[in-house]
């Protein structure tokens, strides 16, 4: 299990600054799909049974890892994150990459995902071949990775993979021209450079350091539930087919295709779970690195406030019940 990064007031401020920097960066570079894929790839390597467990620990930045076929196209988002990291010395790469994924979803119209910092960077690279293979057949492949290794339920697996509405834009499937056409690639270009986005207007160019106010108008990459609608109509990759052909998966696909709100709610839960897999981030970060003597002062106050709230709720409940009985009589 990865250790906690020291969390104090300064670190928390840097995390918020990183969030602002990432919003501006993602808007300016039109790289939301790359950032979400970067966060996913860094986390999906987790294997609790291995000596080098992997998981969201910043290992994806290692040169030997970026050269792997499964990580083709990730050099660009790693380089872009390096520009942000240079301004924020305290923030770990692990936190930065996962925050980039959270922000990528939010700025493209997706749900707000709670983010808890404290991930420790790892220097060693996990074994190759742990990541999901979009061309591999069968629902068992998905369950082996996301359920057995990471503890996600079937519903959470389906919800998480709904993020392919963005991530699919960056896939490189050798020899599969049909997939390449579907995800809008231009022949001969690297996946990280093939996002077919319109050029920003003159006004947008002047706002390069400011995140867009209207995400849907300015960013043609939109996070929604269309992945499920398209998968039901015509599953392209074996991963899509696994979701629609497996009965336990399919019921969730059908539900999310009809209900975007339910998808957003469940996606936020699944994404957060993936971003924290293998990390000890259960304790509220505002209490981390607080001296023991101060923590002893904080806890009684918190308990006192909670006790007051409970009493107030009980009194209100009693008064409502009493008023209701008086009305009946």
From TrEMBL:
Keyword Protein biosynthesis: no
Family: Belongs to the peroxidase family.
PROSITE patterns: PEROXIDASE_4 (PS50873)
Feature: compositional bias, Basic and acidic residues: 201-218
Lineage: superkingdom: Eukaryota
Oxidoreductase as UniProt keyword: yes
Ranges for region Disordered: 114-140, 181-218
Stretches assigned to the Plant heme peroxidase family profile domain: 32-314
GO molecular function, one term: oxidoreductase activity
PANTHER family: L-ASCORBATE PEROXIDASE 5, PEROXISOMAL, THYLAKOID LUMENAL 29 KDA PROTEIN, CHLOROPLASTIC-RELATED
Keywords noted in UniProt: Oxidoreductase
The protein's name in its UniProt record: Plant heme peroxidase family profile domain-containing protein
């Amino acid at each position: 299990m990865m250790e906690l990064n020291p969390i104090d007031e300064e670190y928390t401020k840097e995390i918020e600054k990183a969030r602002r920097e990432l919003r501006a960066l993602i808007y300016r570079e039109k790289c939301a799909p790359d950032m979400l894929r970067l966060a996913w790839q860094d986390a999906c390597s987790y294997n609790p049974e291995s000596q080098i467990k992997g998981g969201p620990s910043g290992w994806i930045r290692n040169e030997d890892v970026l050269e792997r076929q499964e990580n083709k196209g990730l050099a660009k988002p790693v380089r872009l994150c390096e520009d942000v990291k240079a301004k924020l010395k305290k923030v770990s790469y692990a936190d930065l990459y996962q925050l980039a994924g959270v922000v990528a979803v939010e700025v493209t119209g997706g749900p707000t995902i709670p983010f808890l910092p404290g991930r420790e960077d790892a220097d060693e690279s996990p074994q190759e071949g742990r990541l999901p293979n979009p061309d591999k057949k069968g629902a068992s492949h998905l369950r082996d990775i996301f359920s057995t290794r990471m503890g996600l339920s079937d519903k959470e697996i389906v919800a998480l993979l709904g993020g392919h509405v963005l991530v699919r834009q960056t896939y490189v499937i050798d020899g599969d021209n049909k997939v390449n056409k579907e995800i809008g690639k231009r022949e001969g270009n690297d996946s990280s450079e093939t996002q077919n986005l319109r050029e920003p207007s003159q006004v947008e160019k002047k706002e390069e350091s400011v995140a867009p106010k209207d995400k849907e108008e300015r960013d043609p990459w939109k996070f929604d539930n269309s992945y499920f609608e398209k998968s039901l109509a015509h599953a392209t990759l074996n991963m899509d087919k696994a979701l629609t052909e497996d009965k336990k998966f399919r019921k969730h696909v059908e539900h999310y295709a009809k209900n975007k709100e339910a998808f957003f709610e469940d996606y936020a839960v699944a994404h957060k779970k993936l971003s924290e897999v293998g990390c000890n981030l259960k304790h509220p970060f505002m209490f981390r690195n607080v001296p023991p003597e101060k923590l002893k002062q904080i806890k009684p106050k918190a308990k006192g406030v909670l006790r007051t709230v409970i009493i107030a709720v009980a009194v209100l409940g009693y008064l409502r019940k009493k008023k209701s009985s008086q009305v009946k009589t």
